[in-house]
Amino acid sequence: MGFKQGIKSILFSVLSVNACYLSAQGPEEAAREVEKALHLTPSIENGKKVYMICTVCHRPEGWASPDGMYPQIAGQQASVLIKQLADIRARNRDNPTMLPFTSPRLLGGAQEIADVAAYISQLPMSSNTTVGPGYELELGERLYKEECAECHGKEGEGDKKDHIPLIQGQNYKYLIRQFDWIRSGKRRNADSKMVKQIQRFSPREEFAVLDYVSRIKPPEQKVAKPGWLNPDFPNYARMPMPSMPAMPPMPAMPQMPSMPQMVR
Ligand code: HEC
Ligand code: HEC
Q: 98 alpha carbon to ligand 1 midpoint, in Å?
């Protein structure tokens, strides 16, 4: 299947998606799928094929978009990717943009989730992501060491075993959005201990710690060489990020003729 044709058929399937293609819902369903996917042997080769539908938004490289809309997913722990995919698909984490692409018909089952997670986790990362304003990095560092490192690791490397995300090389704005959603409970799949831990953060502390986190770069061996583009998708049409399509200017509204006076 050629790339263009692939995209066409994907868009067609998304449009024709209906209730019977949507998967079972809820945290229990997601947990079952995670358990299943974690125990399968992944195929990176098949993961590459599955990842084609993801390139529509995450691009072949899986790097963050500067506006903070798309996170960096390249290099993430495979177990975390599996959990997020299962949670999003079971509507245990809201992501209306991505939801239709996680239907069993497009994404497949636990095996395909394991495959695509393995593929994404071995993609080299970008270290060129947006950071905060840098006002209070000392405070941020202290908070990180005291409140986050025990779970996310000294260098934000995460932990495969407990599905703890790697948060190195993540976009500042994305970090703020997730932190706020985790704290408010909007991100329902969050870690309950983390939710408790961050309740009493003031805005100043939140911005300081996330500014610090946004500056933790991935280790050199995980970072792509300068100028690297993912060779697995040679036909990918490189357009500006799809998050902000240029809108044509609105034509001026024609003047409405005034209503004739009703004669009673
Ligand atoms: C239509 C656009 C779109 C498509 C297609 C898409 N995604 Fe996403 N994805 C997003 C957006 C937007 C977010 C960030 C949502 C948020 O802010 O919570 C996201 C978030 C994620 C996350 C969570 C990352 C994290 O750090 O927690 C993972 C994992 C992910 N996508 C993987 C995939 C995979 C795998 C595919 C293909 C099967 C895919 N996405 C297809 C738009 C898309
Ligand atoms: C008790 C362990 C724990 C502590 C402490 C903790 N976290 Fe987390 N954090 C988690 C887990 C687990 C997740 C993933 C939850 C899920 O399954 O979606 C997470 C998710 C996140 C995410 C979302 C990542 C993504 O890719 O979407 C961010 C950002 C984050 N944590 C930042 C922080 C910061 C900053 C601190 C310190 C102020 C902190 N965490 C403290 C366990 C913890």
A: 6
